[in-house]
């Protein structure tokens, strides 16, 4: 079954923490664990502080094929191949009119094993990444509440953290470090502390989701496909992600006002309302039984206007969040963690830990983030149809597949957006670009 609560036997909850490290990483999700694993492998003294216990529950179960290079670098491919995670070969869309489109099969574009990825229970997947960080030499401490990032003028010099000792008593400790990496997810600790978190007013979305047992799946290699289904009127959309043990993750996203504007409605009522507008999802869930309760979240798109400074770096959702529609979260977390680790490792080699060096990867990363975001704008545009677009511009289907696979840093992708004509005007894009200082 899906992991819905942390283990009381979490192996990292009582790990002894020292008062000085080269690098402190805030957060044990895919961004923090990836970055910590690579930094420790390079010989740096690293501590990772995770507020909760592990395995921890988190939504965001669908991996993109472009996670493959990072998983390969972490030497985790065999572990993934031997796991019970369902294999994912494609993504498929259902239009607001109920038409089930042809799947985007990744191996039609990249005939390599990297075209196949996985649908994962995040608690188990995140634990695999944390285990790798520990194997590489990272000190991982869970049940650690970071109270503050410590600064000397503008330079981050460590953190203040509250830990529980063996007797269950709180202990406050200051940990000094040369670099603080904020991988705290949507808590965005440094961005909120410095007041540099900027929301996108056009992507204020709300989501509710739950898990269902014995829902209808397709056969063969389509069994593990991610399905994206728009509802009648395009006011909301559903995801359908097959997980192990015959469980599927089903979520619904729409504008905050539309989804949660009526305070008298319970999450189950909202789900039933939207389900009535999606016949294909009704068909798939008809024989199923709900497993657990519905959960809700605000998926506000945001980005920090400053992502690096003296002695500190943001990665993953602490850097910025786009939207759940294209399952980009884990990929962007792992890639940003990898890019940041490489910049830091090279910085140590060159004796240069300046903000410019620590953030040398920002603009490349932002370009990929923007490609995801532009496609999100197209998805939500009420007068835009992907089916009509590909009939007029069939040559753009390859670019669409590149993005769906997570190959968002590939040159030339701007061609598809030039032809769509539904994304942000250039002046707005330029205004939203971040600098690395």
From TrEMBL:
InterPro entries, sorted: FAD/NAD-bd_sf, Flavin-dep_Halogenase_NPB, Flavin_halogenase
Domain of life: Bacteria
GO MF entries: monooxygenase activity
Keyword Repressor: no
SUPFAM superfamilies from the UniProt entry: FAD/NAD(P)-binding domain
Broad enzyme group: oxidoreductase
Signal sequence, renumbered to the chain: none
Enzyme Commission number, as recorded: 1.-.-.-
Keyword Calcium listed: no
Keywords, ordered alphabetically: Oxidoreductase
Protein name from the UniProt record: Putative FAD-dependent oxidoreductase LodB
């Amino acid at each position: 079954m899906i992991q819905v609560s942390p283990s009381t036997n979490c192996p990292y909850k009582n790990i002894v923490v020292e008062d000085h490290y080269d690098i402190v990483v805030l957060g044990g999700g895919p961004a923090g664990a990836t970055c910590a694993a690579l930094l420790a492998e390079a010989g740096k003294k690293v501590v990772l502080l995770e507020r909760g216990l592990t395995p921890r529950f988190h939504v965001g179960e669908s991996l993109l094929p472009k996670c493959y290079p990072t998983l390969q670098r972490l030497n985790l491919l065999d572990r993934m191949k031997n796991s019970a995670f369902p294999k994912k070969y494609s993504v498929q869309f259902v239009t607001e009119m109920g038409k089930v489109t042809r799947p985007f099969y990744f191996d039609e574009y990249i005939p390599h094993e990297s075209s196949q990825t996985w649908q994962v229970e995040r608690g188990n997947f995140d634990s695999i990444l944390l285990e790798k960080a520990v194997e590489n030499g990272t000190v991982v401490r869970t049940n650690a509440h970071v109270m503050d990032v410590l600064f000397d003028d503008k330079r981050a010099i460590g953190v203040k953290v509250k830990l529980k000792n063996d007797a269950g008593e709180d202990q406050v400790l200051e940990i000094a470090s040369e670099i603080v990496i904020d991988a705290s997810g949507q808590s965005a600790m440094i961005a909120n502390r410095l007041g540099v978190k900027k929301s996108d007013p056009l992507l204020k979305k709300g989501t509710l989701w739950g898990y269902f047992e014995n829902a209808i799946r397709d056969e063969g290699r389509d069994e593990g496909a991610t399905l994206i289904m728009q509802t009648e009127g395009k006011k909301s959309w559903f995801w359908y992600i097959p997980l192990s043990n015959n469980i599927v993750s089903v979520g619904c996203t729409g504008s905050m006002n539309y989804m949660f504007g009526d305070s008298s409605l319970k999450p189950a009522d909202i789900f039933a309302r939207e389900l009535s507008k999606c016949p294909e999802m009704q068909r798939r869930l008809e024989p199923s039984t709900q497993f657990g309760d519905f959960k809700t979240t605000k998926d506000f798109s945001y980005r920090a206007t400053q992502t690096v400074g003296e002695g500190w770096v943001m990665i993953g959702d602490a850097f910025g969040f786009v939207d759940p529609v294209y399952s980009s979260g884990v990929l962007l977390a792992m890639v940003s963690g990898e890019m940041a680790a490489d910049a830091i490792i090279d910085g140590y080699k060159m004796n240069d830990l300046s903000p410019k060096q620590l953030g040398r990867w920002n603009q490349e990363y932002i370009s990929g983030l923007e490609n995801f975001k532009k496609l999100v704008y197209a998805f939500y545009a009420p007068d835009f149809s992907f089916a009509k677009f590909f009939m007029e511009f069939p040559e753009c289907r390859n670019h669409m597949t590149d993005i769906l696979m997570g190959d968002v840093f590939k040159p030339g992708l701007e061609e598809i957006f030039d032809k769509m004509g539904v994304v942000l005007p250039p002046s707005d894009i330029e205004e939203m670009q971040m600098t690395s200082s």
